[in-house]
Structure formats: structure tokens, C-alpha cells
Design a protein that fits this description.
This protein is an all-beta fold. The chain contains 1 helix and 22 strands. It has one domain: Jelly Rolls (Sandwich). Helix content is 1%, strand content 48%. Strands 1, 2, 5, 6, 10, 18, 19, 20 and 22 form a 9-stranded antiparallel β-sheet that branches. Strands 3, 9, 11, 12, 13, 15, 16 and 21 form an 8-stranded antiparallel β-sheet that branches. It has a 3-stranded mixed β-sheet with strand order 4-8-7, with no helix packed on it. The chain is globular, with a radius of gyration of 18 Å.
């Protein structure tokens, strides 16, 4: 069996600059209401968000369960818990909030959140479905943050921010493609404090990543498969998951209401528009 083709990213890591992104000359940032929410109401805004993932039940043993979601005190809360009864391979209830629009495109994407303090993830990412490309099909994914507040297998994960950028290319049933993962120190840890995680998706070939309004890295994806690897619009995902590569939280941990919830203070998206 052939090994998947590994294609590399060209990663430019620059010193952190303590300032938010400056718009392109002649342009200014405009809030995109389709994907922005301060969570100031008493329930999820159904004009913007789904309370489930439209194409995915979740990775066992955690499924996406709408009952874990609530909005109060200016926060979106995902209350991770044990299922009352196992459902096949699923024993844990996580949650998913997904944008109704899948037309998120170039712009600035940021969310202020605090991860649960268990070994489940609290995430903010963008993705699209596979579409025909070349001899196969391709999809893209921008993982702005996959935080784990109390990691077990990789104990320092909660003290690192690891954005990912994926281009998946499938030919004759074999997935090929490339991914980039780099890290920046995170203090306080993700399960103990709120942080603002952001990406400026500049164009099909450039993504800048920001942590707490500090520019920390720039990614220029490989063009070996596609000259414009990130040119398609995406949907926004805010989900809590279990991972195969991370230890599943114990029932005692996930039942502890002091540590089992993920909190999103807000999500804001800006588009560049020409100045008047």
C-alpha cells in the first residue's frame, strides 16, 4: 500500500507584534454580521447558527448533542457531559455550533473563548466539503484553535496554541495532501483563562495567525497540488470533541460542573471593504 503523499508548507514565523492587523491601503474592516455574535441573548441565534453539525455526528465516544448548548450572561456555553445512556459507540455528549452560511471567505476571523478543563477539545475552525479537483476531489480546513484544557497524553498541549491548515486531496479513494502545524506558547493555559484566537485569511495563498491580538505566524501553503490551495469559501465551526490521539476524559471529570464546560464570549468576522 502506497504511503500518502506528504506535501510541505512554507512557513514564515515572524516576531510577535503587539498590534491588531492593519487593513490593506485604501480599505477598512467591516463587521460581517452573518458570522459574528456577541451571545448577548438568551438562546442561540438560529438565523446564523445550527445547533448541530450538518454532516457529522461527532467522533466517538463523543457525539454532538444540541442539549449541551445554552446562551446566557453574554456567553455561549457547551456543557459537556456523559450521555444518560450509551448510543452505540457514543457515551459522551459534546456540542457543535455551525454557521448556516458556508460562504465565509477571505477576511479576519476571531473568537474569544475558554476551553473546558478536561481532556476534550474546545475549537474554532473553518471547513468546506470535498469538490471535484483534477483527477479527484479536494477540501480545505483552517483550524484556528483546537484547545484542550486538561490534556492527558500530551500534558503541555494546554500551554501551546497550535493552529492547523489542511488541504486534503483524494484520488481513487486514497487521501493525499498536506497539513501545517506550528505552536506558540500560551499563558495562562487554555482551560484556565479566556484567549482571543484569530486568523486573517488574506487570499488563496496566505493566512496570518493572531493570539490575543498579537501576530505570531504567517502560513503560505504549498502550491504543489493547486496554485491557489485556499480559494474556496467555508463554514464556521465551534465544536467540542474527543480525539483518538488524546485520552478520553473520565466520567468523574466530565461530570464535574466546575470544569466540564466550554465558553465562547464572542465570535467576530470582518471583511475588507473599500474606504468611502
Amino acid at each position: 500500500m502506497r504511503k500518502p503523499l506528504a506535501l510541505l508548507f512554507f512557513l514564515l514565523v515572524t516576531p510577535c507584534i503587539a498590534e491588531p492587523p492593519q487593513p490593506t491601503d485604501g480599505f477598512e474592516w467591516k463587521l460581517d454580521e452573518r458570522f459574528s455574535d456577541e451571545f448577548n441573548g438568551s438562546e442561540l441565534d438560529r438565523s446564523k447558527w445550527l445547533d448541530h453539525h450538518p454532516f457529522w455526528k461527532g467522533r466517538p465516544p463523543a457525539k454532538f448533542d444540541p442539549s449541551t448548548l445554552s446562551v446566557s450572561d453574554g456567553m455561549l456555553r457547551i456543557h459537556n457531559r456523559m450521555l444518560d445512556e450509551p448510543e452505540g459507540d457514543y457515551t459522551i455528549a459534546g456540542g457543535a455550533v455551525v454557521s448556516k452560511s458556508n460562504q465565509a471567505h477571505y477576511g479576519y476571523y476571531e473568537a474569544r473563548l475558554k476551553a473546558s478543563n478536561i481532556s476534550m477539545s474546545t475549537t474554532f475552525w473553518m471547513s468546506n466539503r470535498s469538490a471535484p479537483y483534477g483527477d479527484g476531489e479536494a477540501s480545505q480546513e483552517l483550524d484556528i484553535v483546537e484547545a484542550i484544557g486538561a490534556p492527558q497524553r500530551f500534558p503541555n498541549w494546554n500551554r501551546q496554541w497550535k493552529p492547523n491548515t489542511h488541504f486534503f486531496y483524494t484520488v481513487n479513494g486514497e487521501r493525499k495532501g498536506y497539513s501545517q502545524n506550528d505552536s506558540v506558547a500560551l499563558d495562562p493555559p487554555s482551560g484556565e483563562a479566556f484567549h482571543t484566537y484569530a486568523a486573517w485569511w488574506v487570499d488563496a495563498n496566505t493566512v496570518h495567525y493572531y493570539l490575543d491580538d498579537v501576530h505570531c505566524m504567517t502560513v503560505q501553503p504549498s502550491t504543489e497540488v493547486s496554485p491557489k490551495p485556499f480559494d474556496r469559501p467555508m463554514q464556521i465551526n465551534m465544536v467540542t470533541e474527543t480525539y483518538k490521539w488524546e485520552t478520553t476524559p473520565t466520567p468523574e471529570a466530565i461530570s464535574n460542573d466546575e470544569i466540564n464546560s466550554s465558553y465562547y464570549d464572542w465570535v467576530r468576522v470582518y471583511q475588507l471593504v473599500k474606504k468611502p
